[in-house]
Amino acid sequence: MEQIELFAIESPCKGVCENSAKGFCKGCLRSRDERFHWFTLSNEERFHILELCKQRRVRLLKARQERLDAQSDKALPYGMEDEPAEDLLSGLN
After folding, report:
1. Is 34 exposed, middle or buried (0-12, 13-18, 19+ CB in 10 A)?
2. Which sequence spans correspond to the domains of the chain?
3. Cα distance between residue 29 and residue 23, in whole Å
4. Rounded-to-integer distance, Cα 19 and Cα 2, Å
5. Where is the stretch described as Disordered (predicted)?
6. For residue 60, what is the enclosing H or E element?
7. What gap in Å lies between CA 3 and CA 1, rounded to an integer?
């Protein structure tokens, strides 16, 4: 059963709005479908997407650190490149 929320969960968009090679937003780490359907989703579905974005961010940061430690050119997850990532989801804890 879906819990009733007093306020709608806002979009995590940070205005970066640039796709990675695999279609994930470089700002919020949502997929194309997640961005496209955001305003038709329930709060429960939105919360789930925010949790997925947090997991993606953790995986991306871990992969970047592993690359640095190994001085490797291994590809990063989600089609991301080497540009620095802002801590865009830090307020969602």
Report:
1. buried
2. 39-73
3. 9
4. 31
5. 72-93
6. helix 43-70
7. 6
What are the pLDDT digits (tens) for 15-54?
A: 988 999 899 999 999 999 999 999 999 999 999 999 999 9
| SS3 assignment, position 56 | helix
Q: Is the pLDDT of residue 8 over 50?
A: yes
Could you tell me the CA-to-CA distances from 14 to 10, 25, 44 in Å, in that order? 11, 10, 21
10 Å CB burial of residue 24 (0-12, 13-18, 19+) is: buried
What are the tokens at 65? Answer: 């650190």
The residues near 72 (Cβ < 8 Å, ≥ 6 apart) are 66
Q: Which residue has the higher pLDDT, 60 or 5?
A: 60
Q: How confident is the model at residue 74 (pLDDT cuts 50, 70, 90)?
A: confident
